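Onboarding guide, step 5: your first structure request.
Type a short instruction followed by the sequence, for example:

Predict the 3D structure of this protein.
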Amino acid sequence: MRIVSLLPSATEIISALGAHQGKHHELVGISHSCDYPPEICELDVLTSTRVPVHESQLVIDQFVRQELAAGRGLYALDIDLLEKLRADVIVTQTLCDVCAVSSGDVYQAVSALPGDCNLVELAPSCLEDVYNDIIRVGDAVQSGTAARYLVMQLRGRAEAVARQQILQGERVLFLEWLDPPFSGGHWIPDLIELLGGNSCLVESGQRSGTLSWQAICDSDPDIIVVGCCGYSLEESEAALQLLSRHEAWLSLRAVRENRVIVGDGNAHFSRAGPRLIDGLELLAAKLLPASSKLTGA
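The system replies with structure tokens like these:
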């Protein structure tokens, strides 16, 4: 079985299942954003991006809004290479045209391919959907047993964090972009709930969306987590420095009281795969000192 993954979370799921290492299962193609685990980085790359990823967050946001409003896609798919790879299974997404190649482009490409190909589309809205998608991908690549075992492990780890109840209902604002500010939606509120907190300005299953600084100030969260979409920890920290003189940001109680946590959005929060639970555990470890301050312990 030859497998193509057109989004990083699917690549990480396939790799976690070992479905790319068997004699009869081979991951043969990935997207330009796929970078984990490191051993997959030598595979054929089927997509490219027009997004100016090395520009400022404001420039990136303006470019994305402009191109989507004009009906222009942000990504290109190498159809000739896709046909050459002769995939039996292609995993793609229908959740967000900003995050990966659009489902319409993939549909068009697959319809022109010779032979049969199983197209698996992922569109998780919450953590439970992520678990279900792991099983769906596992079944599609004939690794259903491994997928169910992986989900059982992930649930166990998440429940272990939940039992600690590190937070006691504190209000947590997760920012997945800073200029302009975006809420961390979808599965992020579920992670906050597992920590014992309450998500500010967005509920489980809701899409991430632009926030006004007024709304952020009015919510006055107890804790702020910054994990910029597609950014490493270092990149998120650098982006956060741009707010060092931002009046609204500096007025927030969480900022004044040093209750801002920065995480690796690219690795642990943006991708709907197994490493979300790594992110949950890392947040738990970072929040323990904050929890002690909040409770006066």
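Each response can be followed by summary notes, for example: Residues 32 and 60 are 17 Å apart (CA to CA).
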